[in-house]
Design brief:
This protein has 7 helices and 14 strands. The protein is of the alpha+beta class. The strands form 2 sheets. Strands 1, 2, 3, 4, 7, 8 and 9 form a 7-stranded mixed sheet that branches.
């Protein structure tokens, strides 16, 4: 049995801390990173509940006022509320027929190929839930970003930039501050971060009265998402995908992506370094492609390349752009 990850830093950090003799485990970590770039940046922290984390959020500031000599000012206090963030249990299995393993000549490589396919599916599931998970619709999933920031007039409406799209062919760009005081992954109290990999070895499979033997691997991942301070997530929503193709034409109705990204940056509260956060833009292939096209119209130096975790990332005014294809091009318009 092995645990892929522990209670520190990101998956990329964990890969560097792996025992060199545990090459199979380290390669699994790299597969996770390659399939889902957000895991290179997303920090993980232990929750304070057996099923997640309870966060105390400041919901109102104390009142203050001027006073005159020999006159007082009424005392006041801030208002707080508690929010419980849940986790989900994500599980996957891989298996390979023992005869296939014998004929293949390299049992480790064959089993690893099956493990990779299972892990890719887990990555897809986690990434989709990160953005769109909604326990009100599926109780087994944790609450993702989009259901939190889903109303222009709602509690978090001030953190949504409306790009003007309508209908159901829209997408979003997210600017999130990752860290303990912003957005981070969570795992239940008393458990370890990351994916638990359990080698169950040789097992007998019964199917319609027949028997065969396989070697099985089980993967278990307790994971969730916490947004400690809602101000550190900004959504550029209602980006009409079909209208992006009109960019540069005489009837240009495309969303001004670079302008909106600058607007999002100016919504960052205070000095992000003061909160100990690392900001990233989360974009899918569609918006990243059109943002790149738009910046070529005028040399403005807004985009650059930067090496992070041994891989080159495009940055916009110093903020890394993290490609997340789980962000769909079929979002309904936010109203």
């Amino acid at each position: 049995m092995a645990v892929i990850g522990n209670d520190v830093f990101t998956f990329a950090d964990l890969a560097k801390r792996m025992d060199p003799n545990m090459r199979d485990i380290a390669s699994v970590v790299e597969v996770l990173n390659n399939q889902n770039d957000i895991l290179k940046f997303l920090p993980w922290m232990e929750g304070n509940l057996p099923t997640g984390h309870r966060t105390t959020i400041r919901a109102g500031k104390p009142t203050v006022g001027t006073r005159r000599i020999n006159q007082g000012v009424a005392p006041s206090k801030s208002i707080t509320k508690q929010v419980d963030e849940g986790t989900m249990l994500l599980e996957g299995w891989s298996e390979a027929d023992t005869e296939l393993l014998r004929l293949g000549g390299n049992e480790g490589a064959v089993r690893a190929s099956e493990d990779v396919a299972t892990l890719e599916s887990m990555n897809d599931f986690f990434s989709t839930t990160f953005f769109y998970g909604n326990p009100a619709l599926n109780i087994d999933r944790y609450l993702g970003l989009a259901p939190r920031y889903n109303s222009l007039s709602g509690e978090y409406g001030g953190r949504i930039i409306n790009a003007g799209g309508s209908g159901s062919d829209n997408t979003s760009i997210w600017l999130v501050g990752l860290g303990e005081r912003g957005v981070h992954g969570i795992y239940p109290k008393g458990t370890k971060a990351g994916i638990e990999r359990i080698d169950l070895g040789r097992q007998v499979i019964s199917e319609s009265g027949t028997r065969r033997t396989v070697k099985q691997t089980q993967f278990i991942w307790h994971c969730g998402l916490a947004v400690k301070d809602y101000r550190h997530a900004i959504r550029i929503g209602n980006i009409d995908v079909s209208n992006l193709a009109t960019f540069g034409s005489g009837s240009d109705t495309s969303a001004k992506l670079l302008r909106h990204m600058i607007q999002a940056m100016n919504k960052i509260p205070g000095n992000p370094n003061g909160y100990g956060l690392k900001y990233v833009f989360l974009m899918n292939e569609t918006t990243k492609t059109w943002a790149d096209i738009m910046t070529t119209e005028k040399t403005n130096g807004a985009f650059a390349l930067k090496e992070i975790h041994g891989q080159e990332f495009t940055t916009f005014r110093g903020i890394p752009i993290v490609k997340c294809d789980a962000i769909t091009d079929a979002e309904s318009a936010i109203s």
